[in-house]
Amino acid sequence: MRNKIAIPLVLGLTLLVANSASAKITEYESYVTIKSSTKEDYTIKFYATTLNDDPQAKLSTQSTLYKGDEHVDDAEGSVRASSTYTDVHGHKIRYKVETDHFETVGRKQTDAEYSEDTVAYNPTDWKFVKLSDEEAQEEAKAHNNLLAQRATEIAADTGVDLDGYAPINKGEVFDIDPDLYQEIRALTKTQVGDKKPQIHLHESGKSLYILRQYADGTNTAVEFVLENGKWEKQ
Fold it and tell me: According to the UniProt entry, where is the signal peptide (predicted)?
């Protein structure tokens, strides 16, 4: 059935150079695609996998499927996770899967990575069409614009000033500070209907905001500030 759907499929697969001092995630990817479809409905499948050749490492994934920027489904598992989501088709819809990959050895978390993929479904085009690089860039630009509009809305409602801030993902937070990553993971857990949480880091590298909009429309902004070498929640 995939030959009837326009699908931009970009794997978030990255090969990493292993650090000999500790275990590391060696491969990680996530993707979303159209599993099946009719002119009445269609099924989205999203999948993530994390790999490492260290037998002592426990590898896990936590994936969230977004319709636009709204949480519609999720899945998690050890080593791999997959799920499906069904929705009646209508106007052009963009789905995005985002996956946090994390690794622990014993009780210590030793690595974290992030991957994503996007698929656009357009019911007016029932032929398989591979998007050009320019079209894929337009899809990504549209999604980023949606997130930027949401961030502006949350900032206006909560009274925060995002001047000098730029969005980052949770994998980048782990590189900044593993302890901060743990706190942000807890603060960015979502449920169906919530909008995608956003992390905005200041250009100084000493302040960041967690922006949230919940399913009931409530907006929140939580700030962390780097003080004396430690990130403190304000």
Answer: 1-23
